[in-house]
Amino acid sequence: MPDRPVPPPAEDPEEKREGTLVTNSPDPAKADTAVADDRELSEAGSQLSTTPLEAPEEGQSVPGSFGGVRKPGLGGALAWTWRECAGWARWFWRQLTSMRVALILLFLLSFGAIPGSLIPQTGIDELKVEEFREAHETLSPIYDKLGLFNVYSSVWFSAIYILLFVSLIGCIVPRTWQFVGQLRGRPPRAPRRLDRLPAYATWRTEADPEEVRQAALGLLKKRRFRADRAGDAVSAEKGFLREAGNLIFHVSLIIILVAFGIGQLYKYEGGKLIVQGDGFSNTLTQFDDFKPGSLFDTEDLPPFSFTLDKFSGTYEPSGPQRGTPRTFEADVTYTESPDAAPKKRTIEVNRPLEIDGSKVYLISHGYAPVVTVRDGRGEVAFKGPVPLLPIDSNFTSTGAIKVLDGYRDKDGEKTQLGFNAFFVPTFAGEGKGEMFSQFPALDFPVLALSAYHGSLGVDSGLPQNVYQLDTSKMTEFKDENGELLKQRMLPGETMELPDGMGSVTFEKEIEEWASFQVSHQPGSGLALTGAVAAIAGLAGSLFIQRRRVWVRAVRGDDGVTVVEMAGLGRSESAKLPEELAELAGDLHDRAPTAAEPDAVPSEGAEK
């Protein structure tokens, strides 16, 4: 295929004729032709994207000048006020629905979510929020005013969320209608000067122009171009999936926002700590903590239940990863409804139990030493496992033992007992440093207690942390040296309370507990669909190029057909010339280059 012809050198604007300097003056006809050519090129490249075309504003369109000239009188003032308000409304809507503002709002939404990840949230862990308030007395009032303890339900986060939602809809609706119009329309007519386009090829052929156009039309349709004949040329375009992907990406963002809103409004999640052998029913009173969405009705809780039959955990016994958890498994027996048959299932980390749209996750686990408390008369006032919370990776655990009712001293008077508890599953040994566990498994369990008596403060009506002991209204038990009574015990040992007040026994049984989170997120599937569609749409908008191709075939003055091919893309790309070269090569096979005419010898030359 011949190379693209080199255009002739431009004429010098000043040339000498017969010794006289002549200056070329602009030709009005040529100027009009150039303007027409530029207009045709602009039309050829128009609507290669679905960016909405803004209609020109009559008069001034900057804020503060929408009202125009204000006529005297009340009617003039009202008309001016109406024009000013309508102009401001149009200006605000155009700004809000611009892609620039949508990207800014998306960035603000992402940036605003950062405090929700770094600062404790009241909707997730109120105890951590209270601890943060106590540790940061100066920052806490500022965070309260800014709503940083409840970021996702704060006014400013909701405002960004709603504005982004409206902005995306305002961006998508006009783009969608314009895209539909492009699909229903025809490719634009070929410009007069195809050689001004970035990708161009031409050659001369003996084939008839009509045959060339028909061959080009069939070739382009075979290559999945949307082609149409217009005059002496064939117009074709391809790559609509780029704009479709762009629209899919933006629609997917709206789907994700809708899914997030549905999830926040209709979700519920709650936590429950269960000692091995105990059970749970999915009712409001059974949860240790419960956080519903604002539109969730607790009557809609699925009526399932389960029992923790056994918890087992294994750990790396030696090496550099000694103590690293290997398996956490909770064997449960569950029923989907009161009348359903029981089923067995093993819940593992990241492998929840799914029941009726809700998921039961295994969150954590720990130890619950079995303790027996006897009063001054030797009667059992309390006996059972006491869950303690781990404070390190080796399950060094702390907590409190509270004896509320059933205890009487040696005189028969009712009182309450409290014990600060410190438990290690693997003790390092006497005189080998502080009392911290050396390994997560129950290799050498030790329980340390310190004893108090008095009022636990549970009758005040204020909520209490069951794992912390409030000693403000309690009195210390004293040992023989007048110090706080405390003792370190092995399984089976007993700590005697002074003055015949009773005893505390660390039984040989040590139970394990597991913490579960029951969660219902109705918008998670929709959000996943939106995320997958957004990735697919973004990939399409990035890797698919919108382009147009024109083929013109006309008969020259010498009777030979001149074929011109040109291409135009939305952005500069090396693929467009390559694709045009392939198309030209295929068309050249059907309409090959005509043979050059023999040169006519000059007069007087030898024959």
Topology of helices and strands:
Blueprint lengths: L13 E4 L2 E4 L4 H17 L28 H24 L2 H14 L1 H5 L7 H10 L3 H8 L8 H30 L14 E7 L3 H14 L3 E5 L2 E6 L1 H27 L1 E8 L3 E3 L7 E4 L12 E11 L9 E11 L7 E6 L4 E3 L2 E17 L5 E6 L3 E2 L6 E7 L12 E9 L21 E9 L19 E3 L9 E4 L4 E3 L6 E18 L3 H20 L3 E9 L5 E9 L5 H16 L17
InterPro entries: Cyt_c_bgen_Ccs1/CcsB/ResB, ResB-like_domain
Subcellular location: Membrane
Keywords: Cytochrome c-type biogenesis, Membrane, Transmembrane, Transmembrane helix
Structural class by SSE content: alpha+beta
Number of separate strands: 24
Strand content: 25-35%
Helix percentage range: 25-40%
Low-confidence stretches: 1-26, 53-63, 602-607
Mean pLDDT: 83
Radius of gyration: 41 Å
User: What is the CA-CA span between the terminal residues?
Assistant: 32 Å
Tally the helices: 11
The best one-word shape is elongated
The description of the largest β-sheet is: 7 strands, antiparallel
Structure description:
The protein is an alpha+beta fold and 607 residues long. The protein contains eleven helices and 24 strands. The strands form five sheets. Strands 6, 8, 12, 13, 14, 21 and 22 form a seven-stranded antiparallel β-sheet that branches. Helix 3 (99-112) packs antiparallel against helix 7 (155-184) and helix 8 (209-222) packs across helix 11 (575-590). The longest helix has 30 residues, at 155-184. 25% of the residues are buried. The model is unreliable at 1-26, 53-63 and 602-607 (pLDDT under 50).
